[in-house]
Fold this sequence. Notes:
The structure is a homodimer. In chain A, about 40% of the residues lie in helices and about 15% in strands. The first copy, chain A, contains 14 helices and 16 strands. Chain A has helices spanning about 1-10, 25-35, 50-55, 60-75, 125-135, 150-165, 180-195, 210-215, 260-275, 330-335, 340-355, 355-380, 405-415, 450-460, and strands at about 75-80, 85, 110, 175-180, 200-205, 220-225, 230, 245, 275-280, 305-310, 320-325, 385-390, 395-400, 420, 420, 435-440. In chain A, the strands form four sheets. Chain A has an eight-stranded mixed β-sheet with strand order 4-11-10-9-8-5-6-7, with helices on both faces. In chain A, strands 12-13-16-15 form a four-stranded antiparallel β-sheet, with helices on one face. In chain A, strand 12 (about 385-390) and strand 13 (about 395-400) form a beta hairpin. The radius of gyration of chain A is 23 Å and the shape is globular. The model of chain A is unreliable at about 1-10 and about 90-95 (pLDDT under 50). At the A-B interface, helix 4, helix 5, helix 7, helix 10 and helix 11 of A face helix 4, helix 5, helix 7, helix 10 and helix 11 of B.
Amino acid sequence: VATSQTKLSWDVLLDLGPPESGPLHERLKNTLRQAVTRGQLREGTMLPPSRQLALDLGCSRATVTEAYGQLVAEGYLEARTGSGTRVRWTRNDSAPPASERPASAPLPRFDLAPGLPDLRAFPRAAWARAQATQLTSITDAELGYPAPGGHLRLRALLADHLNRARGANTRPDTIVVCPSVTEAVRRICGHLRRLGIDELGFEEPGWSRLRAVARSAGVTPVPIPVDGDGLRVDLLARLPRLRAVVVTPAHQYPSGSVLAPHRRADLLAWARERDGVIIEDDYDAEFRYDRRPVGTLQGMDDSRVLLLKSLSKVLSPALGLGWMAVPPLWAAELRASTPSTPDQLTFASFLSSGAYDRHLRASRLRYRRRRDLVVTHLTERLPHLTIDGVAAGLHLVLRLPPGVDAGAVVAEAAHDEVAVTNLAGSYEQPPRSPGGLILGYANIPDVSVPEAVARLAAAYARA
Amino acid sequence: VATSQTKLSWDVLLDLGPPESGPLHERLKNTLRQAVTRGQLREGTMLPPSRQLALDLGCSRATVTEAYGQLVAEGYLEARTGSGTRVRWTRNDSAPPASERPASAPLPRFDLAPGLPDLRAFPRAAWARAQATQLTSITDAELGYPAPGGHLRLRALLADHLNRARGANTRPDTIVVCPSVTEAVRRICGHLRRLGIDELGFEEPGWSRLRAVARSAGVTPVPIPVDGDGLRVDLLARLPRLRAVVVTPAHQYPSGSVLAPHRRADLLAWARERDGVIIEDDYDAEFRYDRRPVGTLQGMDDSRVLLLKSLSKVLSPALGLGWMAVPPLWAAELRASTPSTPDQLTFASFLSSGAYDRHLRASRLRYRRRRDLVVTHLTERLPHLTIDGVAAGLHLVLRLPPGVDAGAVVAEAAHDEVAVTNLAGSYEQPPRSPGGLILGYANIPDVSVPEAVARLAAAYARA
């Protein structure tokens, strides 16, 4: 039955519309995309091998592989080496998480996907003014080749800010400015391989994007479970080959737990004993609501911890501005392309004028209020569900009772224009049950919160 | 003698000044830097092993390795795996080439180093206006995560521009926006290795920076000689393992030759027969003065040629904006971090408004005039020397007679605040003689040309 079902679905690919509507590869792409978005090809459906579809369509194989490749890039299809191409996304599924949506896609009407700050609050006018000022004052020499580790003025300000605001222990010459945290992890993985290290521990659950980056850099991700006190540091002893691990100590993603003090100490001791390194992804630590900010691990041992940060959760991921603080001998190895010098100087002027700190304070207040609003409505509409990880950050976790299918809730919600994310996607090996949802609340306007939560509750009831 | 000489030089490292003048690693760095810039430690001098210097100074080894590392990053020292750390730069040498100078360094007074456009002509006001407009009109969704291959609006405009201005054969979905040509080569090398290709052919002489990038990505550069017709394509037959090569067909760097038509055909035939790829670095092809622009190889076979370009030679390397046109199946593999979306849209508006084409036309006229001026003065002051590669680009090659030491001319000129570059540095295996100088003329004001050439001629006479 499955085979005939699948075979039947393929037939939609054979009607590509009239030649005058565009080149064949374009028509094939459009037809495929529509078939997916209209639900004619459902998630998991295997597509015909490119060779066979090319024969059926009477076109070159390149036409087919190109169409598949583009739709893989757009997130509609998924290609696994050795197991063909399959549909990854269906109309009934949620919108993909914000961090994986192509930029061309409009934001969903009720955006509770995690990964984005409040994009409506981006200080467009102030940023544009700062840019114009920097372009006026930048020297001719500064318009030449950029310093590989970042402009010294920015590095000095970042070192100062990290030390002051995040309890870090950094100096300008150990800061490396880079485009993003994922790019930082890509470079670090490259250097780990040069050092002969080809395994990297990741929190389970954790941010799946970083695991994918490690894999594509030839480093094998090793999942290490997390509990209410953060990473299960005790389990590292069972992994004798492991010498590097990625952690989110201040606010574990996605569970929201804080790495407990005794575990921080144990993790640092582990790194020293193994001659290993700790990669600290400090992604949203600026936003703590209920107690004093948790300082960085990096501040406790700057020779073993690489601290990664970016503007993605503070201003916008579109700026492509990130930075890391690394042990002295690593800095030269991790320098590569930098963000534009005028952009670096614009960010530097935001730091030195105090505009950055003001933006952080205003954001913290806004997100805290929004979190309270979301929690109030969730408690009212879904009183039996547990909410986790609300003490900090830009997202929370809604735990579902055993037996409730999180995927079905996500799909029902998406049907109603509400984007939420299945917690299972953060696992390397998702547990059977109970499931949960990740709700990002930074990028939804306060006025939309009641309606979004009402729709989510209705979706939950239907699922 | 060499040993006692070297030993003597080290002694300058043992006097680090009083403790109150700063932390030890800072004092060590300053002392080292001064010793190099004052000529106390000359180019090529081996530094003491870090362990030994640490013993001599009574400090930790980390203090020494850190100081060394910083000065390597600054370009004063050079560290080779397995052969220690040595001095790379001396006061009497030239300024390092523009592409290798740290951004913090001021431009030399008479800058004839190659690699930079006219930085004084950067359209600061127009760029700032375009940035402000884009920041006003950008959508909230566009402030979210950027599309991995670049914003579609920019890719569409780049495809159109490449096809129109460079005779290329590209489509928006085969364009990958990236920070620079070096970053493009880094990604391509990573993908070559995944394909099992670990050798990459380079023109000899060629741009040394790209060879270094290949090496650090684990790919071995294979030098292939160049003559007046460009790459010696006939020699590829002798390299049976080679399947990938980097070329500058429109204007060979640094010799200035154009890849002859029969060699273009032979090179493409080679790539097809070997199932290989050609990486076309089209770095300054916009600037041809004496005849019609040479079209790209990519336009002749878009399935075998990867075309690389950036704004570095057109506007400024500080913008961190580059792009490549690649075969369809490569695009997904080469996408990684992109320049900031607002910057991409600013560039897109420059392309769509015609401002980019106008800037190219104005630059071409300016550089042509400046080239004429430089050639006139060179012919007058150094009438016996041959000048090569003047038909295009932003630099020329001044051939020196046998027996004249190019390094000595470079050093004498640097002494007189004129930055020129030794041709020998572009070789993997520099020939003994005759030597030459690379003179970049884009970034020197017309008014400075007579004085710069007069000083260069005087340096030549002294050397």
